[in-house]
Design brief:
This protein is an all-alpha fold and 80 residues long. The protein has four helices and no strands. Helix 1 packs antiparallel against helix 2, helix 1 runs parallel beside helix 3 and helix 2 packs antiparallel against helix 3. The longest helix is centred in the last third of the chain and has 24 residues. It is elongated and about 55 Å long. The termini are far apart.
Length: 80
């Protein structure tokens, strides 16, 4: 197999930290770590995962806001 570089190992460690925050519902912290990974370790697999995590958390934040807004119920009834 291919030797993993220190950079890759470090990026994976960061990713693990982000996942722990994520599981503990510390979304803001998870987002912060994900963004650091993308900035520090671009073009790594961890950065790809982090980008997906950022997208998910951003959309998750939107869902939460919509959930609170009064027209969310209306939209649910219409089915989107």
């Amino acid at each position: 197999g291919r030797q993993t570089s220190n950079k890759e190992e470090a990026s994976i460690a960061q990713l693990c930290i982000a996942e722990i925050y994520f599981r503990n519902k510390s979304n803001a912290m998870a987002l912060k770590v994900y963004k650091e990974i993308v900035k520090k370790y671009p073009k790594t697999q961890a950065a790809e995962n982090a980008k997906a995590g950022i997208e998910y958390l951003n959309s998750f934040g939107k869902f939460e806001k919509e959930y609170i807004s009064p027209d969310a119920e209306d939209r649910k009834r219409r089915g989107f």
